[in-house]
Amino acid sequence: EAGVTQSPTHLIKTRGQQATLRCSPISGHTSVYWYQQALGLGLQFLLWYDEGEERNRGNFPPRFSGRQFPNYSSELNVNALELEDSALYLCASSLTQGATGELFFGEGSRLTVL
Amino acid sequence: GQSLEQPSEVTAVEGAIVQINCTYQTSGFYGLSWYQQHDGGAPTFLSYNALDGLEETGRFSSFLSRSDSYGYLLLQELQMKDSASYFCAVPNQGGKLIFGQGTELSVKP
Prior knowledge:
The complex is a heterodimer. In chain A, 0% of the residues lie in helices and 50% in strands. Chain A is an all-beta fold. The radius of gyration of chain B is 13 Å and the shape is globular.
């Protein structure tokens, strides 16, 4: 069974540009979570999608947005990129709604903003 | 709000036992999870405690005391491959999993 897959693995952008990151959850998982992990720091919650709806978002500006498609895959968009957006962006999926169970993470997309 | 505190780094030698503590403050408690992350890769789930007590899974054990808002991860018979970052995490009412800042474990020969 395939795990959570993310693309691209690496992405280099310049300030002001937009970045789009993609995530495919484990088959059968309807919940998708996005986290930001700056170098050497913990995971900061960005967004949670379930059944195509945004269920919760973290303390990030509106230029961080996303969506979940009918096949439960998800996309994270970051507009007007700033230098501090450079980080590893991790996607996770779960079988149960609400993160009380195990989250399965992808390897992440490393975004570098120059 | 919610916050979790854990030591930033711990060092131990191969074959030893190490304990990584985590204290939390939450509005509503649903359980305490532990995750392992090697070199910025995918975090992997280790354990989940919803009730007080010790849960054992091979060399790893996790403990929870809800009255003390405290838990720990115990790693026995340390191996070099256990060198990684370890995160405690709690789910909140909004369904998101809140992570601590992580403890970097270095296992020395």
